[in-house]
């Protein structure tokens, strides 16, 4: 992460700093925003204050003196119509000078970059702010100047951070009389068009709409010495489900995710028995921007008896990383460290039980609500399928959830597929490809379509890996349509296809021998195809080789110990072109024209497989030569 650049000041004077470049761009967007829904800034500041209070409660487990004399943790909002300022204060963990510079002058690159990219096309959708962790900077939508006075818990000196959002900020020590005893005070000098946020009714409306669930009191200052609480201030997950409305669930979901959309699925229950804990989890209704970030792990908040422990306890496996929410243990030790979480048997037991529960709830949702299931699968299906590769213990559970598009229909379960097997079909056939459009055009599917055999179309990168390790489903093995023999002899054709005459079988054998000789070590074998009904040729992998899509994927990733194997060239003995070549081979043997035709057939198969030909100039020359022969020489 880039750091804000500091000038060297005299002691006890303001230090001037430049914002990180990405922050400067973000501030420009905020300062010059034309967003109509600016309430989000207050939600974000309150959320940050709540996090600061949670962090202090956690630190105070090991160091109780941090909260001695002021254990009443709360957030206080103070409007001042005379000064035109709105103050949001907390007595949480606070920040020292270095933390003010790091936290308010820089942002994690991934979040900032992703936000800026989204903002270019979001057409003023301010709801993005919370999702990308840039909430503090939304203050500049309503404030001409922002001051942050903060004292780190347990430290003597307090500091003032100030900026007008123009590209620089200052940090300086503040006098004891101007500083909070502990925590952070954010003072917003409001713009003239934002003075409505000084009205009690407006503040209360925003808090009730977006922050009522915050488990700490939010107090509105009604005078110099008078405050009143304006939120419910109870942990929502501790309340009975019957007392929680869908809007309250949505509000809490928005708090932990920064999203405004409804969650697609809510899972709320209390586990009792050997271990007692409460779970409130959500499946988002929109794709998180960092879903495929390699550093993204579990995003579940762990509490112990309502005391916040950590944001990243990894209480669910990586393939369920999109699930957000809270798990609150009743009997876990309060002083458990983040390092201990990885090896604690109680945490392992909770992780196992919660994972099984989430999969069970997904299955129930998918069976009862097909439209909702479709939405969840379209967003998170490729991630869930990672579990088929990573979590062999739960592969059967996942097979009940996983949906597939096939050559005949979309959203099919393996149970549905097996129920509709053709007579004498002994395998679950699949085709891996880079995208579904290419998959559907694959010539290797022709023989399966002609027999009405359904084929799974696997187009996610992880498909090439899990399908190799899966033993099968319901006693039927998985078999690639682009690998080994097709094994379709016992399945009758449903539509007419061109066939090889018995009298021509000898000619076909001669042609195969000629092609093998012409292509040499460019191919592993040449043989007649059961797969093809319309195309003249196709490429497949041998039984011993990797699936061709997997080979290409590994080659692109630079996997050094994987060598691309030679393909098998299959020819359609019933195709008119192959029959004509066979007749020529029978009459003339290995003539030069058949050698050239053999190279063209191989290149044609490569093109149909979405690959590049090895020698484009030679291929173009051969095609031009054939066209010239077909249409005659050009007349002068």
Structure description:
With 636 residues, the protein is of the alpha+beta class. It folds into three domains: 5-229, Heat Shock Protein 90 (2-Layer Sandwich); 239-372, Ribosomal Protein S5, domain 2 (2-Layer Sandwich); 502-631, Heat shock protein 90, C-terminal domain (Four Helix Bundle (Hemerythrin (Met), subunit A)). 35% of the residues lie in helices and 17% in strands. The protein has 20 helices and 22 strands. It has a ten-stranded mixed β-sheet with strand order 1-2-7-6-5-8-4-3-9-10. A five-stranded mixed β-sheet has the order 11-12-15-13-14, with helices on both faces. It has a four-stranded mixed β-sheet with strand order 16-18-17-19. A hairpin with an 8-residue loop joins strand 1 and strand 2 (15-18). Helix 1 (21-31) runs parallel beside helix 4 (109-121), helix 8 crosses helix 9 (370-384) and helix 16 (505-519) packs across helix 18 (576-588). The chain is elongated. The N and C termini lie far apart (69 Å). The model is unreliable at 1-11, 108-112 and 122-133 (pLDDT under 50).
Quick description:
This protein is α+β, with helices and mostly antiparallel strands and about 625 residues long. Helix content is about 35%, strand content about 15%. The longest helix is centred in the middle third of the chain and has 24 residues, at about 345-370.
Strand order of the largest sheet: 1-2-7-6-5-8-4-3-9-10
Radius of gyration: 33 Å
Poorly predicted runs are: 1-11, 108-112, 122-133
State the fourth-level CATH superfamily of the largest domain. Answer: Histidine kinase-like ATPase, C-terminal domain
What's the total number of strands? 22
Q: Characterize the largest beta sheet: strand count, sense, and whether it forms a barrel.
A: 10 strands, mixed
In DSSP terms (H or I, runs of 4 or more residues), the helix count works out at 20
Distance between the termini: 69 Å
Q: Structurally, how many domains make up the residues? A: 3
Shape: elongated
**What percent of residues adopt helix (DSSP H or I)?**
25-40%
Structural class: alpha+beta
How big a fraction of the residues is strand?
A: 15-25%
- Name of the level-1 CATH class of the largest domain: Alpha Beta
The mean pLDDT is 84
CATH fold-level label of the largest domain:
Heat Shock Protein 90
- What's the architecture of the largest domain, going by CATH? 2-Layer Sandwich
